[in-house]
Design a protein that fits this description.
With 471 residues, this protein is α/β, with parallel strands linked by helices. The protein has 20 helices and 12 strands. The chain has 3 domains: 159 residues, 3-Layer(aba) Sandwich (D-Maltodextrin-Binding Protein, domain 2), CATH 3.40.190; 100 residues, 3-Layer(aba) Sandwich (D-Maltodextrin-Binding Protein, domain 2); 184 residues, Lysozyme (Orthogonal Bundle), CATH 1.10.530. It is globular, with a radius of gyration of 25 Å.
Amino acid sequence: MRVGRWVKKWCCAVVMCVLLLISGCDRPLMQNDLEALLSRGELVLITRNNSACYYEGPHGPTGFEYELAKAFADDLGVDLRLKVIEEEADMIAALKSGQGDIIAAGFPFGTQSAKLLALGPGYQEVEQQVVGRRGGPEIKSVGALEAYTLWMTGSSARIEYLEALRRDFPNIGWQILTAYSAEDLLQMVWNRSLPLTVVDSNTMSMNHHYYPELTVMLTLGRPQQLTWATDPRNRRLKAAMDKWFDRKETRGIIDGLVEHYYSHLESFDYVDLARYRRRIKVRLPKYRPYFEAAAEKYKLDWKLVAAQAYQESHWDPQAESYTGVRGIMMLTRETSVSMGLDDRMDGEASIFAGARYLAGLHRRVDKKVPEPDRTFMALAAYNIGFGHLQDAKILAKRLGKPEDSWHGVRSVFPLLQQKKYYRTLEYRYARGNEAVIYVDRIRTYYKMLQSIVDTAEPDYSNDDSLLFPVH
């Protein structure tokens, strides 16, 4: 099938679906759509269930789009309700039939989809990336793509770009797998079930640390902006949305979310992550029972304790630094004495002592600090000392940053190295940059460990859906 005909059929299907749903629900045209939303007391968000949009974390609902929409709903004074829909066409149909108020999809909309929607301001830049695996196809130019099939999820923006690209490179072909998510396709490239995929850069960034052998082969086209979308008939909701995004405070929220979800992913390279993945299989099994038992005793997540131990020592009970900290949890002599630890080189005993020390720091962090921020602050205190954590919170408050959020405290930690700031604080100079890197790396190790331990990696090698004709 020619791609141009396929795109036209896809667009027609979207329009027909929307018209049928609209005619079936007999939705009245509201004179004041925003008042109606406020009256019912909830904002219905249409979004996807993935790492870039929304998922259930250890402390409840989370995700970039979820948290951003929650901030908007809070500003409106209403509850946030989620309607999870994975396909773009289905999202648009649900919006047009009144099943939701806003689409926050985590991907850019194509020209044809945009005609059916009222798009808000752009708030995050993404790119279309061709992703392969080390040792797989070598793609150094767009022309080289003609030798391979590009496997991907349905996206109007992506299809429109490839359609335009095909005018100059007529043999470029692709296959859309509606049964899988973009994250599934990344895993399928990683386990060599597929040669190449095309994903949005935010999805790649959120998942690269799980699959360090993946690499971005090419970036296609120009960067595009993520936007929310609403029904064009909801003019007052659109105006309220535009006004909210235009605020300086909202820009601060977005910057904080970008930092929270992406900043800790930047300090790794392929060698770091590949080595860690191997050691999860080779070294971790020996110490896992101790991590589990210690975490249960001190009411912690064993995967967090294990991730911290890896950052400290790479799970080496004989590790020793030039500063004199030793063992698998790299405890100082003074901390070991206070925790009742006689031999820091005893792996089991060191794990229990380190977990006990972390739990104690967690209790000392103000209870009004929400999770996971409270845990991040406890980890920072483990690295830099509780006094310096308190100094950072004081400094954050002075500088007008939220002292009870990790985002606010994280942003001022590096300032503890500057004389103009540390000389005004009780505990004076500290290597604040190290504390930031320390927590960032533990977060990444934790996410990788959580993914590997909690999620079985499916085998796609015999999946008949991969045999469909190429578009």
